[in-house]
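Researcher: Here's my situation. A collaborator sent me these components and asked whether they could plausibly form a single complex. I don't have experimental data yet, so a predicted model of the whole assembly would be a useful starting point for our discussion.
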Amino acid sequence: MSMRVLKAGLQTTLQGVPFAGHRKIGMPAAGAADCLSLALANSLVGKPSGAVAIEITLTEAVFEIQEPCSIGVVGGAEFLRINDVVHPQHQTIDLLAGDKIHLGPSHQGTRTYLAVSAAIHADQVLDGQSTYLTAGLGGHHGRALQTEDIIAFTQAPSNQRRNRSTPLHLRPHYSEDYMLRVTPGPEADSPDAAVVEALCRSPYVIGARMNRMGLALEGDSLERETFSNMPSAAVFPGTIQLPESGQPYLLGPDAQTTGGYPRIAQVIRADRHLIGQLSSGSKIRLVRVTAERATEIYREKLSLLTPWLGQINFW
Amino acid sequence: MAAPEPMIHICDDWISISLASREAVFAAARNFSSDKCWTEIVPGIDSVAIQFNPALLSPDEASHLAIRQLGTEVSETYCPPPAIVIPICYDAEFSPDRDLIAQKLALKSTNLSTWHTSKTHRVAMLGFMPGFAYLESPEECPAIGRLENPRQLVSAGSIGIIGNQSCIYSFDSPGGWPIIGRTPLRLFDPSRDRPALLTAGQTICFESITRQAFDQWPQGAME
């Protein structure tokens, strides 16, 4: 009961729900960088929204299924081919033993999720199974998948046949130009309120320095009244820090738990999944909202998704 | 005597609370830990952050709850985590910055281990990586500062020192703190009941061990 990696690609990892409740001992969230695409892929194979799936980053990847099962693919991949025949994303696909899944490189967006109807084996760490690469924990021996790896299934695929197709209005639109909504961060309070205005004034481009820990934002350099490093304090995925260079830095899912740079803004939970689809060259516009408005947006998004996805949490 | 009002800042799903003292940070973290609605409680050096699920709590509700819990006296007497002795090996291989550190402290390199083991430390907070500990020492110490060129690889167990502040690296990682020695203990092991070896607020002392003792240190002995 398994699946073979014929071509692993740049950074392909097993990811599901993030680690939760352990930031006080320094354990980051990890987990799927784009929780919405993961949930949509899992839904196609009848799994809970946060079940462990395969997260593919930027480059193409090829897998061979060793037994009959069904799959669902959602993300930025340019194409999906089964044994050289093109198939659409957002559709349950039934496969036979020996079938090859070929995911194209990212066209727009950065990550693609491949969910399978069988339960994927992943190392259990604390409360989760996602891969945290920096410390080599969870997932497939704590590392990115390599060509010729075998991904084991712990449970046979269910025989129950499903044929699901994501409703059109729920399909994410991947692009190279995103709007991310932010609330001011703790260090953006007066006398530095102007820094958030400046941050939202003009677009930023994601720089070459980007990974699951964070992304450098290139654009207008920002100035603060005082530029001293502050005593280390909590940061979260989606926190925008302002290092001395004046170039903001957006934290990703593997962000460390504490940092010493001013936390000038926080991408709201409803928009945080978009961070997983940003790559070098993507353009982002930041839009300021209040914490109250951010909560309304989040609840509206959940109520749009729950009829299709069932119970879902963003992270 | 009125304590200074804590400063509260609310993002959409987390709250940052600035506090006047380290004791206030530890006390706040303890108060919050009894309420399941906080999905993360992250002590910083002079602040604590708590995260919540915005589907269940509004920012307004969360901040009212936080303010109320901040003011609550914890009824049971607080027992700080027990002090711990950390074995440290000052072998030259594990102490690449001994000369630099000794120079800043106006000590002979050979006296560095005696100086270091005579100090007591307290775990200020965990962060950066799983189990990575920031330590503080109450005793006066000249500033040592960070390395001009951070290392690409600092081995797990390495102890860095920049003055009154020290740290213990829990995993192999890049790092810029001058390294004084290395412990054979595993700072983070997810298979243990308590994966992180150290706890914020804990007192620690270093005890010098030989290279032979380091090499033969039984893994799992401190678990």
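Model: Some features of this prediction you could bring to your collaborator: The interface with chain A takes residues 7, 9-14, 16, 18, 29, 39-49, 51, 53-55, 58-60, 125-132, 134, 170-171, 173, 188, 190, 195-196, 200 of chain B (CB under 8 Å). The radius of gyration of chain B is 19 Å.
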